[in-house]
Amino acid sequence: MEMEESFDAEGSFDDASCLSPQSPGSTSPARRQNKEIKETKITINCVTFPVSASAPEQQLLKPNEWSYCDYFWADKRDPQGATVTGFEVLLQKQLKGKQMQKEMAEFIRERIKIEEEYAKNLSKLSMFPMAAQEEGTIGEAWAQLKKSLADEAEVHLKFSSKLQSEVEKPLLTFRGDNFKKDMKKYDHHIADLRKQLVSRYAAVEKARKALADRQKDLEVKTQQLEIKLSNKTEEDIKKARRKSTQAGDDLMRCVDLYNQAQSKWFEEMVTTSLELERLEVERVETIQQLLRQYTTLRHETDMFNQSTMEPVDQLLQSVDPAKDRELWVKEHKTGDMRPVDMDI
């Protein structure tokens, strides 16, 4: 069965600057020179994570619950190699659940068809005139057995009707047309926040490069002045230092904006993933309830079918060959005077 088509992906996170794990300070000359500094954070697909080897273990937001909000922060690759976000995995779970619900309803529909056809055939068979001339107590039992087929047909017809109204229809109407629209809203909202995060990360990297360039320019001019290889003045040095300081301020501003964007994305991911988790619990519990209703109806059908056989059982217990013989003889006898010898 084909699942309902996935939502259109909003933007890609395969930007060259985001693909490989990077440290926020990986381009800083000072960090390159000091090899003793250990990085405690790493950026993957424009999202910043702590380095597990050096950072204390994070506490789960909802310990011991296997909650959606704790296990879908990273991206992964699908079999075709495309990047799939953790949130997209959660959305696909919702779509798959909707598809499974639809297939369950189709399965119940097939069962309904079988019950209807079975009831139709039972009713038809009950009207066959075969052995209708059987007499006596066995004839009564046979007639009741044929009538029980008609009663059983009615039981299965009612069973199919209840399946339709109490199981199939609720499966079809649970989460109607608006459900997919709601999922698409969630998808677009989170994707927009993620794209903003990518944009802010690009700004950080641009500002980081600008700072490195300004620092390098300041360093070169300072060295040239010290060894008198240039006629640069102190004013030139001050100007380069101001530009370097400005570049540093710009980088701090960009990092702050990036952190704000990541914080907003984080908050919305938690809120929305918990809502998706609630919807999944609701779906499972609803299907559980409907399947329980199916089994209840099935048990009732067995009980009613058994009740249709009780009159047959009673009549079969009353079958008496001697009684049948008495009844038949009384109705069909031709005379009870026996022949005698002829006299001369």
Secondary-structure map:
Elements: H1 16-19, H2 29-33, E1 41-44, E2 47-50, E3 76-77, E4 83-84, H3 86-126, H4 136-173, H5 177-226, H6 234-317, H7 321-332
Antiparallel strand pairs: 1-2, 3-4
Strand content: under 5%
Structural class: mainly alpha
The level of helicity is: 55-70%
Largest sheet: 2 strands, antiparallel
pLDDT < 50 runs, ≥5 residues:
1-37
Shape call: rod-shaped
C-alpha Rg (nearest Å): 41 Å
What separation lies between the terminal Cα atoms?
98 Å
Strand order of the largest sheet: 1-2
Give the helices and strands as they follow along the chain.
HHEEEEHHHHH
Number of helices: 7
Mean pLDDT: 87
Number of strands: 4
Structural account:
With 344 residues, the protein is mainly alpha-helical. It has seven helices and four strands, in the order ααββββααααα. It has helices at residues 16-19, 29-33, 86-126, 136-173, 177-226, 234-317, 321-332; strands spanning 41-44, 47-50, 76-77, 83-84. The strands form two sheets. A two-stranded antiparallel ribbon has the order 1-2. The protein has a two-stranded antiparallel ribbon with strand order 3-4. The protein is rod-shaped, with a radius of gyration of 41 Å. The N and C termini lie far apart (98 Å).
